[in-house]
Amino acid sequence: MKLKDKIAVITGATAGIGKATAEYFAREGCNLVLIARRVERLEALKSTLEEKYKVKVFIGKVDVSDFSQCEAFFNSLPDELKAPDILVNNAGLAYGMEKLIEKPVEDIDKMFDVNVKGLIYITNLFVPQMVKKGKGSIVNVGSIAGREVYPGGNVYCATKHAVKALSRALRIELVDTPLRVIEIAPGLVETEFSVVRFKGDKEKAANVYKGLTPLYPEDIADLILYTVTRPPHVQINEVIIMPTNQATTTIIHRENNE
Ligand code: NAP
């Protein structure tokens, strides 16, 4: 088992990429601290993973965009969980596809609060303890939206460009430590992401993945597992991963596309 008795903190663990990563890590013997807002899902995942893989799972109902919630949860953890071997900053979302000048202010705030500020809050709580421990991997889930900009992507793209900038900044600042900073930048992954983006409109969400085989959350979990299990002298800085029929955010080959 590649992660036996290690500890990983994963944000956004109740769905999609975070949930798949929790399962991939648990299968490798990793104990987990899982963070998200939907506590019933966290509880269900905890009991499934503990039973199936005999690992310890600690859960936190935390909105990462609220620093006081992040801090209270962090302070409630036993010391060994405050210094994980792996931190996966995955929680994130997009709202809408409106033009920038038509974007509702609450959607703008939410995307920046979760995708950027939430990532910084969680990083700033856990990473100092990882530095003290003298080892660890930080994985930030960015996006190809952090490399390109597409129509309607405006604010979401800005937040993911920020994730890239923050990952690069942290890598520079931790260069004299054994810690490594890894950014994973996926293209289309079929998760709850599009249902959230279209505020529950499942038909619109399904259209995003229509006519192509998208990536699945397990593909990203597999990649994250690969990056964190390299030898300690190897740091995979950034990985862009897309479905085979996607070349850019907008150039996508779809079968039977009328
Ligand atoms: P998802 O299925 O919607 O999962 C998102 C996760 O984030 C959920 O567990 C959600 O849990 C959590 N979350 C959202 N807001 C949160 C908050 N305020 N506090 C704590 N947790 C929060 O979407 P996904 O595709 O797996 O997204 C994971 C990451 O991948 C995101 O950063 C996203 O930007 C990135 N990404 C996705 C794609 C894609 O095509 N799907 C492509 C590139 C990058 P709760 O609702 O329970 O809080």
Large-scale geometry: globular
Number of strands: 7
Bin the helical content.
40-55%
Could you tell me the mean pLDDT?
98
Round the Cα radius of gyration to an integer and report it: 18 Å
Largest sheet: 7 strands, parallel
What is the N-to-C order of secondary-structure elements (H for helix, E for strand)?
Answer: EHEHEHHEHEHEHHHE
Count of distinct structural domains: 1
CATH superfamily membership: NAD(P)-binding Rossmann-like Domain
Bound molecules: NADP nicotinamide-adenine-dinucleotide phosphate
Q: Biggest sheet, strands in spatial order? A: 3-2-1-4-5-6-7
The CATH topology comes to Rossmann fold
**Structural class by SSE content:** alpha/beta
List segments where confidence is low: pLDDT < 50 over at least 5 consecutive residues.
Answer: none
CATH architecture: 3-Layer(aba) Sandwich
Q: What's the tally of helices?
A: 9
What quaternary form is this? single chain
Family: Belongs to the short-chain dehydrogenases/reductases (SDR) family.
Keywords: Oxidoreductase
Organism: Thermotomaculum hydrothermale
InterPro entries: NAD(P)-bd_dom_sf (IPR036291), Sc_DH/Rdtase_CS (IPR020904), SDR_fam (IPR002347)
